[in-house]
Amino acid sequence: RVNNSGGGNSAAVLFQGEVDMIIVIPAVFSASEVTKIRSHLDAADWQDGSTTAGSQAQQVKHNQQLALDSKVAQQLGDVIINTLSQQPTFVSAALPLRIFPPMFNRYCTGDTYGLHVDNAIRYVPGNPTPIRTDLSATLFLCDPQDYEGGELVIEDNFGSQRIKLNAGDLVLYPSTSLHTVTPVSDGARTCAVFWLQSMVRSNQQRETLFELDQSVQSLTAELGAGHDDVVRLSGVYHNLIRQWADT
Ligand code: NI
């Protein structure tokens, strides 16, 4: 991240506030939990994945997925959301308001998802409340050695970030980013993807809050929750939330 305090690195400061954060949360699920999830998924009924994409994305989406209304998808989706709702880094980074239930994707040999941007508004079937997609998430449900290719490539201001995580790890990135899944050339890549509407719409404000919260957490560990400066800084965090959050 850009450090603004030195004064001597003005070239780097040009990017301040424009860099969208890509956040990796390791080990959201343990190896044994992933094995359990996978045993349900591998036995499930997979369909052509292009049916749920928007019209531009449909042209470039080649993979398989579970039907949104399948019982397996709904039950595993609930497990994922319940787990993440209690995951402090996820909550701090996302400040979720509404979460679109996870969809389960499988990329077999030859499958790919070309360059696209995710639909801005999504509806859960049967629910009239729109969900604006502020953040996109991918939960990896297989290990990197299980397949060749299949990297999630996210375009940001510094170029492209190539992401291929361990089973059980999650990546969270702004839905405003163009992204792609490169072709799988061997094996199969299984993952869950979902979107969420954040209480804080602006990537920049949300990222500022995340950094502030992380600092408050580490100062709390160092100085204790009752330290004057910790209390003050905590107050600043909550007052910014009050200004910036929609509920
Ligand atoms: Ni996408």
Descriptive overview:
By secondary structure, this protein is α+β, with helices and mostly antiparallel strands. It is 33% helix and 30% strand. The chain has 7 helices and 16 strands. It has helices at residues 10-13, 31-42, 55-60, 71-85, 88-94, 203-223, 228-244; strands at 23-25, 46-48, 61-62, 64-66, 96-107, 112-116, 121-123, 130-132, 135-140, 147-149, 152-156, 159-163, 170-174, 179-181, 184-187, 189-198. A 7-stranded antiparallel beta sheet has the order 1-13-9-16-5-4-2. Strands 3-6-14-11-12 form a 5-stranded antiparallel beta sheet. A two-stranded antiparallel ribbon has the order 7-8. The longest helix is centred in the last third of the chain and has 21 residues, at 203-223. The protein is globular. It starts with 9 loop residues before the first helix and ends with a helix. Residues 1-18 have low confidence and may be disordered. Nickel (II) ion is lined by residues 116, 118, 179.
